[in-house]
Amino acid sequence: xxxxxxxxxxxxxxxxxxxxxxxxxxxxxxxxxxxxxxxxxxxxxxxxxxxxxxxxxxxxxxxxxxxxxxxxxxxxxxxxxxxxxxxxxxxxxxxxxxxxxxxxxxxxxxxxxxxxxxxxxxxxxxxxxxxxxxxxxxxxxxxxxxxxxxxxxxxxxxxxxxxxxxxxxxxxxxxxxxxxxxxxxxxxxxxxxxxxxxxxxxxxxxxxxxxxxxxxxxxxxxxxxxxxxxxxxxxxxxxxxxxxxxxxxxxxxxxxxxxxxxxxxxxxxxx
Length: 271
What we know:
Elements lengths: L1 E6 H15 L8 H15 L4 E7 L6 H4 L11 H4 L2 H10 L3 E5 L4 H13 L6 E5 L14 E5 L4 E3 L1 H8 L6 H8 L14 H11 L7 H4 L3 H11 L23 H8 L2 H8 L2
Helix pairs in contact: 1-2, 2-5, 8-9, 8-11, 12-13
């Protein structure tokens, strides 16, 4: 079987701004939610049987306590933020497993789910659907891959090396050095992507760098690495069969009415 793990927060953003552009600035109350549901039904129609969706139930996490400038919900448009929780509820009604994260982030849930699923001998491949570079650290050969719809790429370990210049396991170190503006930490001044890759390939993880390489910036680099390292200990499921889609629940009809999209119910019942 192939397990599909989806970044629900990213998909909601993608649908929200994609639909806004298509509708020339006019937002629908639940338009992004409907868009995500249709995209997942399309995956199921084309053969996906085991699906899990991770969401940020709240934007903040334990990382905000480690670094005060780490990303928050500030600046997210109210029309988009108002669709976060309805997405989780609608997905559950559609029969899809959802992991709403509070202390951890959706990325941590994806990393944890990938580790659990890849440990099952019945699983041929795990596909993590997100362009987030953090998730590149979860890639394992051809067994755990990252699907980047935005970049139209499927990255195995070789693809990660080609894009970033380092092995997947060194992605947290790479991000610590170059920074991640989306997550709100700047990296180490004077170190860009090329230099970071060279240092990591030469010395290995930041902990094994000679003291003179980072000097007084070593502790900051290690802090950023902690921010970039995804947690894999979230207790999400015990058996991958829990992720099998078995059709919509009885509550889905009411949800499609609330969303104003009866095509969702029709589409879900045809499979």
